[in-house]
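Subject: design request, 339 residues
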């Protein structure tokens, strides 16, 4: 009996970034095809251009219907949504056309995942400026995904084998963070993180740590009151709901302990609080995943790297890890449906 392999939709990301070449490199790995049926949502001519840069010789095939894909090593199945002119599309130089195509790949993938045509989405890097140039005023993938799936409460998690971090706030100036923190917002982040660890990461009873906002987690109010007035009440509420959660912990120590097995994830108050330790440990294999959505979405945890795009040397490690995580989450959800 053939092993079930979920269809994983891989969006090409920014056509002039490193997305196309890391797709070529990642899908040169035969192990990917043992795990899943990868379907690239992007542009044939740009992928062929990237293949020349990488120096691979894969058959890049257009598929009009997901069911007609070959999905075996040596082939790349592509749902072609754009026909950009490779001679007019310059690595590292975004345009309105490339920005519009980039967004179209994402929205199409979301719709395919929502109707069950694909089991998960893996997104390659996009450029926010290119998105804005094309008239789409989102701060990134996460906000677009949430709007398209009509999801009000969602969480950005960055994950590797040793450390997982979930963010209460995402893309905002650091000076604005204290004003937007609330008991409800922190509680929702804890709740969504705990449930995702249980349902998609297979932790039977996840252990969630919560980092403080201030140095030394406020030091009994000497360095700030947010821990006492906002964070601790959120933790207390989560405990009453039955979640295994502890903190608030000083941010200068909790990541060390979590990376050594004390907790399964750390809830962080702001973007860089979580991403600095995560990328220190998982710079080449970290994965971004959006929790709380009705679909599975993982992503590379790096940017478009315009400065090296087209050089053929971009590391596909994060994309390979993102594909692996998407498969794991999709299978976890599928298996739980039949328990």
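Subject: RE: design request

Done. Sequence follows.
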């Amino acid at each position: 009996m053939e092993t079930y392999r979920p269809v994983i939709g891989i969006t090409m990301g920014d056509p002039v970034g490193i997305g196309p070449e890391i797709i070529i490199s990642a899908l040169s790995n035969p192990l990917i095809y043992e795990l899943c049926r990868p379907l690239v949502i992007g542009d044939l001519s740009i992928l062929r251009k990237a293949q020349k840069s990488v120096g691979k010789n894969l058959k890049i095939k257009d598929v009009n219907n997901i069911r007609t894909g070959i999905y075996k090593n040596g082939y790349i199945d592509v749902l072609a949504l754009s026909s950009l002119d490779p001679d007019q599309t310059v690595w590292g130089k975004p345009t309105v056309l490339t920005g519009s195509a980039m967004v179209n790949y994402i929205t199409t993938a979301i719709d395919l995942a929502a109707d069950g045509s694909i089991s998960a989405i893996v997104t390659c890097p996009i450029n926010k400026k290119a998105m804005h140039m094309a008239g789409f005023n989102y701060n990134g993938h996460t906000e677009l995904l949430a709007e398209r799936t009509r999801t009000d409460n969602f969480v950005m998690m960055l994950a590797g084998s040793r450390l997982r971090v979930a963010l209460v706030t995402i893309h905002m100036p650091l000076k604005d963070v204290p004003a937007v923190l609330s008991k409800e917002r922190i509680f929702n982040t804890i709740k969504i993180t705990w449930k995702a660890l249980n349902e998609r990461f297979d932790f039977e009873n996840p252990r969630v740590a919560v980092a403080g906002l201030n140095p030394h987690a406020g030091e009994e109010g000497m360095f700030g009151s947010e821990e006492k007035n906002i964070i601790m009440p959120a933790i207390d509420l989560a405990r009453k709901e039955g979640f295994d959660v502890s903190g608030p912990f000083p941010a200068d120590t909790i990541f060390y302990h979590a990376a050594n097995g004390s907790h399964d994830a750390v809830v962080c108050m702001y973007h860089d609080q979580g991403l600095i330790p995560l990328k220190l440990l998982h710079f080449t294999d970290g994965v971004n995943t959006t929790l709380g959505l009705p679909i599975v979405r993982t992503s590379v945890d790096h940017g478009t790297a315009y400065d090296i795009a087209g050089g053929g040397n971009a590391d596909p490690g994060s994309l390979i890890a993102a594909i692996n995580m998407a498969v794991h989450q999709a299978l976890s959800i599928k298996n739980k449906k039949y328990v």
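The chain has twelve helices and twelve strands.
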